[in-house]
## 1
Amino acid sequence: MTSSIPDFTQELSSQHVMDIIENLSSHATRKTGTSGCNSSAYYIQSWLQNNTSSTVSLQYFSYESEVSMNVLASVGDIGPRIIICAHYDSISYSEVAPGANDDASGIAAALEAFRLLSNHSSELNYQIIFAAFAGEEQALLGSRIFVQKLLLEQQPIMAVINIDTVGYGFFQSLYSNLASLWLADILMEGAFSFQLPCVKSIIGYPENSAGDHQSFWNVNIPAVLIYEHGPQYPFFHGEQDTIDKVNFDLVKQAALISSIGIYLLNSRGSISISPILMFFVMLPTITLAGVFFFISTKKL
Ligand SMILES: [Zn+2]
């Protein structure tokens, strides 16, 4: 274990992780614009108010004439920002969409990671922003609106960690584009120092459907997706995406990888390497990841 990093494994609450997934997946659906979706936003808002010392706000937008919202929170002084995010909306091929793994699991991991970091905010040099997005299943609507407004504020954004579907499989994967490899490397280093297994993959640049990290890649902000590694989740976007399918230990691993990684980032900053040099250094990984990507292309 890297001695300068707090022992987040002891500070993490299993009960929080379970409670959050249980609450969010108890709604018939959290489809964007529905009452289940908006009730979930208010739950996340009050969870943040009750469990962190952050500044919490709602960012409203409309979807098909219905009001929807992103839930935002921040700790730390104004300055370079690190964003931790997940989407809280769900979708299915019927009216029943519990979305326990996609993506209540990611919200639970992101909330708990943000809580751990907010407890140590006095040790951090950056502003940490938490974002729970709606509209992910509608071509990343919520995160695209968030990014548009963020850019208007003209504050530097150092890194983004997006957590989506982390409760099934063997361990976690870190997906980055080429420009975000340095960020995946730091997350990987932090994870290994706490014996948390994960693998790193590089993915390309498909249309706005792969997850909210894409909204940041679209404007050249470094972002990494934490996503479960293993067999394809068979209950994606279905009525059976229920809490009994979720492995809480995996969700906790995602929370720890995020909080440890962000804490490590605090002491490192970004690493500037020529993209051409990086390409040749990473060529074997890129080749393997490309093969994996074509095998496992999926919608989150
Ligand atoms: Zn998802």
Note: Strands lie at 55-63, 66-75, 81-87, 127-133, 157-163, 171-176, 198-202, 223-229.
## 2
Amino acid sequence: MSDYYVYILKCSDNTLYTGSTNNISNRLLMHNIGKGAKYTRGRCPSILMYLEHVENRSLAVKREEVIKKLKLDKKVELINSATNELFNGKIMVSACLLGDSCRYDGKAREYPNIIKWSSNKNIIPFCPEVEGGLLTPRLPSEILGDNVINSAGEDVTEYFLKGAEAAIEKCDEEGIVCALLKANSPSCGCRNIYDGTFSKKLVPGMGFTAKKLSNRGIAVFDEDNFPF
Ligand code: SF4
């Protein structure tokens, strides 16, 4: 018997969509390539916000109907409730947050609360820049337009693209639908990135890997907005 999930997505126009599936990672992909549902087709990317396990298809369909009829505030309550199983499955975590010395300066950026929290979770540590072929230590890089430039002015975009592709492959392989990523990084930043002038100025934007995961529907958080 397959496992079924009822899920809620936040669409690009900030509306919520409820569905059910027995293959959540494939379903997220379908939604975000416009083949998931008529409603989400013109509202990509949509991001996973809520996941609830149910035993079979018939229960999934019933639960989906119940959630669909809830008012917006009740859906938001559900997303913030203990029944949200988004954080119970495998979670990709930026390796530097867990103490891996993979940052450009050869250091880690570990957070004791993340290491403590991760001890009883199903964590997949991942560093897109290392997976993309960059050495440690390396020169710092920032996103400038569509490219990534290091502090010597060299274009290192291809490594960042490879790292982002590797992250998607890992998520597909492992069935990962949630990621906790390091804030402000040109790979992992989910909400802000440096502005490309190497002057420590942050601007709204996403790193290459965070953007790719998010466009795939994977829920991405950083250490400042993850609900520990
Ligand atoms: S690419 Fe991500 S995981 Fe790797 S060092 Fe930078 S922030 Fe950390």
Note: The longest helix spans residues 157-174.
